[in-house]
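Action item from last meeting closed. Structure (460 res):
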């Protein structure tokens, strides 16, 4: 939690809400959009407070150690920055009572949240973000508690769920206003409408290079920094909402990204960085390769991770070597399926020969098998187990690690209609049914037993 000592201009409280789910873990997951908005507001003179309901380093957790509900201790996490959230069991949501897995609130205890809220001066405006569509009840609970402490302050909700399921959010969250689309384009207008303070605009929402660095310094600790060197993707995969969320592609100059990396490294000692780009390697000669070369020249002892998959067809020997020398440690490839002859219905990202070539180049550059994972979508509408096990075998045969990724049906994607038709749940009635942990588009073939079998197959 961070808050200003002295308030002159309007005071905005930004909140990263709880997650309600069957499973959650901090895989380099930070509310980058919210922290960009915090930085933009700060740049324009607003007073900022920040509360992260997913804070793994909350002081109540005794320096990152706190007994979890299952008796284990949460810790500060791994050396690459990832780590577990504190979790508290809560009842399964309506309609999923029969799912035989524990449902939990991930994040700080509600009483810590109430104490943190009570400790800050009354804000003039509260902004809450939202991420996965099926996490909306975590946002709702965050808003409910926030309103008990600040009943007279307007609460605005934006983010991915608010954009993809706008009408549902308006009806269900209890927010005073729900916004859709990229927040940078409307943040100052909204802040001005609600507070009456209208500063001169100091950045261009359509130009990433004019944005201030996201306000990671508002966190208690910075175990890693997500980097966004570009936004948007030229592809249009049937299962992805990237184009709906960010229809225009924007790119930052490589030298500016390097300055940001140096800033977090030199001022805050950050050594782990996670690329959040949808398409980091697209047009790489003019973008990513220049950045990797500049990083190598600086000889910074840092590590890079790519939780958002890389485009396989862009990886040749030069790219693989530069990535290795720049300090890439975790490589994730967007393979999705190895049923290459059928994939045109889903995407046009990669052919079999391009996949094999990329893997050969990465291994030759020096990456170890364990560092290179290929995401494989599991639970697509109409997908059978045999095609998944076949894909796992293709990846293992190529000499790298299969990483099963559960398919989430997402509104506004090309696959949504088919997902709605295939699902054993009423997907359109409640986003909670799109939770990928319950394989909403699969039949009973996808039992937990089958899933653990697939997991075992992927690691052995
Ligand atoms: S390539 Fe990746 S980001 Fe682009 S549309 Fe496909 S899944 Fe989405």
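Sequence:
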């Amino acid at each position: 939690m961070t808050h200003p000592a002295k308030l002159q201009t309007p005071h905005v409280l930004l909140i990263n809400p709880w997650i309600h789910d069957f499973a959650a873990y901090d895989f380099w997951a930070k509310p980058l959009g919210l922290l960009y908005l915090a930085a933009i507001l700060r740049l324009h003179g607003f007073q900022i407070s920040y509360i992260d309901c997913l804070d793994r380093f909350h002081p109540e957790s005794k320096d990152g150690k706190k007994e979890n509900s299952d008796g284990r201790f949460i810790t500060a996490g791994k050396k690459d920055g990832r780590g577990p959230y504190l979790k508290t069991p809560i009842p399964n949501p309506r309609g999923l009572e029969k799912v035989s897995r524990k449902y939990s609130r991930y994040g700080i205890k509600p009483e810590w949240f109430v104490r943190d809220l009570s400790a800050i001066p009354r804000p003039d405006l509260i902004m809450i973000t939202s991420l996965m569509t099926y996490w909306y009840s975590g946002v709702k609970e965050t808003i409910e508690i926030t309103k008990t402490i600040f009943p007279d302050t307007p609460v605005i909700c934006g983010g991915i769920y608010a954009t993809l399921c706008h009408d549902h959010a308006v009806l269900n969250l209890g927010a005073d206003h729900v916004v859709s689309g990229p927040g940078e384009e409307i943040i100052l207008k909204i802040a001005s409408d609600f507070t009456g303070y209208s500063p001169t605009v100091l950045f261009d929402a359509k130009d990433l290079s004019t944005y201030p660095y996201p306000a990671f310094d508002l966190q208690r600790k910075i175990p890693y920094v997500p980097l966004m060197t570009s936004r948007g993707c030229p592809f249009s995969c049937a299962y992805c909402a990237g184009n709906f969320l960010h229809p225009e592609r924007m790119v930052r100059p490589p030298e500016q990204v390097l300055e940001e990396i140096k800033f977090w490294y030199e001022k805050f000692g950050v050594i782990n960085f996670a690329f959040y780009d949808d398409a980091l390697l697209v047009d790489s000669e003019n973008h990513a390769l220049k950045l990797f070369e500049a990083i190598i020249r600086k000889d910074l002892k840092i590590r890079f991770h790519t939780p958002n998959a890389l485009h396989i067809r862009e990886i040749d020997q030069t790219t693989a070597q530069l990535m290795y020398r720049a300090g890439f440690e975790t490589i994730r490839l967007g393979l999705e399926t190895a049923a290459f002859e059928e994939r045109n219905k889903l995407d046009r990202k990669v052919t079999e020969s391009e996949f094999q070539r990329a893997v050969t180049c990465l291994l030759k550059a020096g990456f170890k098998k364990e560092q290179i994972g290929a995401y494989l979508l599991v639970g697509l509408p109409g997908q059978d187990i045999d095609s998944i096990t076949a894909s796992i075998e293709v990846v293992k045969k190529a000499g790298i690690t299969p990483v099963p990724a559960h398919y989430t049906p997402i509104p506004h994607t090309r696959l949504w209609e088919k997902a709605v038709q295939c699902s054993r749940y009423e997907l359109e009635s409640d986003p909670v049914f799109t939770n990928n942990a319950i394989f909403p588009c699969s039949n009973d073939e996808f039992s937990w037993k089958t899933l653990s079998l697939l997991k075992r197959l992927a690691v052995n």
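Note appended to the action item: The chain is about 30% helix and 15% strand.
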